[in-house]
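Researcher: Next entry in the queue.
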Amino acid sequence: MHTVIVPTPSGGITNDPRDPRTNVCRLCSNFDPLTDAERLLPYRSVESGDTSASTNRIANFIYSGGTLYGLGVGASPTFAPGVKQLSNFAASNAWSDYTPWSGSFGSARSAADLPAFGLYHRVFYGVRGARYVWAANPTNSSIDGVSAITVDASNCDLTAYSTVSNMIVHSKDDCLYLGYDNKIACKNASTWTAAALTLPAIFTITHIAEYGNFLKICCKSNVGGNSIAYLWDRDSSLSTVTESIDWGSGSLLFAKHVGSSILGIVQEIDANTLDYKTHIREWTGGPSVENVITFKGTALPVSSFDAHKRNNRLYFVASIPIGSTLYNGVWSIGRSSPGSRLAVVLEHTLNNDSSYTSPILHGCALINDFVFQAYQDDSDAWAMSKTISSSNASAYSSPSIWETTINVGMAAADRAKQKQLHMVGVSTEPLSSGQQVIVKYRVDGGAWKTVTTVTAVGATTTEQPFDANGDPFTAGREYEFHIESTGGAVVTGMMYKYAVLSTFL
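Model: Structure for this entry, 505 residues:
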């Protein structure tokens, strides 16, 4: 008989269900496996983040001075841009108008406008009408040439655009930058330059970010070629950029500097792609990027609004398939320790892991212990989720899940042989009142069967020689295990015992 001890999945999710590494998994959701590599810390559940989500239609976020601001819509004209605000996350989920501004302006916003939302010198900026940059200044005094709500060409006329990127303020020059189509617009104090940089017309700018002294400009090809990230020194007098990085086939949606490398998300979704692919790639300064992981299957696009850096991880919003199931929410890429391999984790599932099949994902905000996600559900209804403010066991009602790979930790010589499972166990930090761990298994791709439900206060290790019905485990060749934590239970590992029934395949 063989005993296998399985550590927590600090190596993150793998797309290969038979990956032989013991510290990877098929699914890790609503857990943090990277802060402490020897235990899985569960995240709290979520609740509605906006009591008037269908009216406000908030799609993007900016956090400043203790207040969260949302790019929503105003009252008139219908669905024109408006700015909302929320200050006390724990006390209320009712957003108010950006004081003293209670109106909206211009033409109705489109989906293409939503990635652009910036704050520069106490003034909010966005775009509208496939042409103009708007500005919202709540004070009566002029700030950088904006004295009130500016909705027309007196602020910035881009002439025309089909797509826009996010907005950033570069710390090296204190200028506001916006990508639109294949151009970069720049505002320096009160002066806009609508086309401070123009890239080849075969590219569309998808994302911009600060990279040292440079502005990093992510571009996808309009003619089926490779994606490119340009490094621009922000000198508009030059007609060329400093450097370009080839990100390979597919559409580069964003790339950000994390640790000693740049991490980027690339998707291949077109009529000539049989398996839609979501690639996570890394550039460390060499001649080419390296592929970290590729997810294959019918996938929805990653949200192109922005990616966030925190705790030396890159967070992004995405719908990604694992096997035949689509998983939606806030994902992360990071390392459990310096020098370890990059790990991909679904840290915060959308709306407590509701089984959405075609949501439209918008922006997210990660603020201390709170995570906000804006989206449209399968019925196209606008919604927003927010982390519950309570910290008691009831705040962890949505399960945190760890699913292992097939035959995790098993000797290579035994993987294809017929086997009998004899014991399944789980280890935890001592359980307190209201905490619970459920252990399941399945064999040869069949249905999940419950092994045990652990609720005893003080329990740390539970070993079960049969399933929850008292029946022997089913014999087979390929075993998988599923662990659910609720109530805040912290999982520290699992184990199982098996015996080979036959040495023949």
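Model: Residues 2-42+402-500 form a domain with the Jelly Rolls fold (CATH 2.60.120).
Researcher: Noted, moving on.
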